[in-house]
Amino acid sequence: MAIHSEPKVVFSIHNQLYGVGVLDVDKIYRAMQVTALPDAPVWLMGLVNLGGHILPVVDMRNRLELPGKPIDPDDRLVRLTAPSACCFFVDRVLGVVAFDQDHVSESGDIHPQLDPHLAGVGRHDNATVLFITTAKLFSGVMAHTGMSQDEHGVLNGPGDARVAG
Q1: Is residue 141 within 8 Å of 157, Cβ to Cβ?
Q2: What's the pTM?
Q3: Is 61 helix (H, G, I), strand (E, B) or coil?
Q4: Rounded to whole angstroms, how far apart are CA atoms 70 and 89?
Q5: 52-76: per-residue pLDDT in tens?
Q6: Residue 35 CB contacts under 8 Å (≥ 6 apart), including other chains
Q7: Residue of 139, 151, 161, 157 lying closest to 54 (CA atoms)
């Protein structure tokens, strides 16, 4: 059964292609240093300062149950829009892809732990692209930082997390 799909920002992590809705992505940055948080869950790498806003960085490899690796200077940091405003590292960004509906289907049973976070599966350049539902995969991120977001995705926390930058 084909499903409707908005264009996706397609990226690779550990030789697998993933896609998130183009409206869910705010901006993509070069790799940068992350400030670790004490006692953070293993899937929360820490915080980054992006344009004066402090945002949490999720370890996508951990969330997707993939082997970990150190941040590489060639990696990219994907910043999501509110209400899931957080960031995650990817190995590389392929770009925005509009998927032909004939090449998009429901996710089915790909991986028991990952299935609840998938919105579907597509094909691009003879490769499978797993469509991630950001609202589901990144739920609970803010609770672990002790911060909250305003309607613009700006983080606020004890002492206000906004900084000059």
Answers
A1: no
A2: 0.79
A3: helix
A4: 10
A5: 888 999 999 988 888 999 999 999 9
A6: 46, 47, 48
A7: 161
